[in-house]
């Protein structure tokens, strides 16, 4: 069975999973209008991934850097569609998170 998206399905740990109530609300909302709060995925940059992402979320993938992801999380920013990180940016995000955690 094929997965609906050829994205690497790793969800970045810095982002929260919507709560049950939000998930129930999303189930009642058309997919293109569903709200996804601070979700980010590690995404490939090929054409097939782009097309799949557009099918799933109704918009082209928007790639963010590790710094942008951290700033968005700190500001409590909410996105209508998930954001994507390259594998390199995901690795950088994890390094930055570990550095921040070790300082606290």
What does this structure look like?
The chain has a 3-stranded mixed sheet with strand order 1-2-3. It has helices at 20-27, 47-57, 66-75, 87-103, and strands spanning 8-11, 40-42, 83-85. The longest helix has 17 residues, at 87-103. It has 4 helices and 3 strands; from the N terminus they run E-H-E-H-H-E-H. By secondary structure, it is mostly helical.
Mean pLDDT: 74
- Strands of the widest sheet, in order across it, are 1-2-3
Structural class computed from helices and strand pairing: mainly alpha
Strands, count: 3
Q: Evaluate the radius of gyration.
A: 14 Å
Low-confidence stretches: 1-36
Query: In percent, how much strand structure appears in the residues?
Result: 5-15%
Helix content: 40-55%
Main beta sheet, described? Answer: 3 strands, mixed
Q: What is the terminal separation in angstroms?
A: 44 Å
Helix tally equals: 4
What is the string of SSEs from the N terminus onward?
EHEHHEH
Based on CA inertia axes, which overall geometry fits? flat
Task: Describe this structure in a few short sentences.
Helices cover 44% and strands 10% of the residues. It has helices spanning 20-27, 47-57, 66-75, 87-103; strands at 8-11, 40-42, 83-85.
Layout of helices and strands, plus pairs?
Elements: E1 8-11, H1 20-27, E2 40-42, H2 47-57, H3 66-75, E3 83-85, H4 87-103
Parallel strand pairs: 2-3
Antiparallel strand pairs: 1-2
């Amino acid at each position: 069975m094929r997965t609906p998206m050829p994205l690497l399905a790793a969800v970045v740990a810095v982002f929260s999973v919507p709560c049950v109530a939000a998930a129930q609300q999303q189930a009642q909302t058309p997919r293109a209008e569903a709200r996804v709060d601070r979700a980010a995925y590690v995404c490939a940059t090929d054409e097939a991934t782009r097309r799949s992402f557009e099918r799933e979320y109704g918009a082209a993938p928007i790639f963010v850097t590790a710094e942008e992801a951290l700033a968005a999380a700190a500001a409590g920013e909410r996105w209508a569609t998930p954001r994507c990180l390259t594998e390199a940016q995901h690795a950088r995000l994890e390094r930055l998170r570990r550095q921040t955690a070790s300082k606290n």
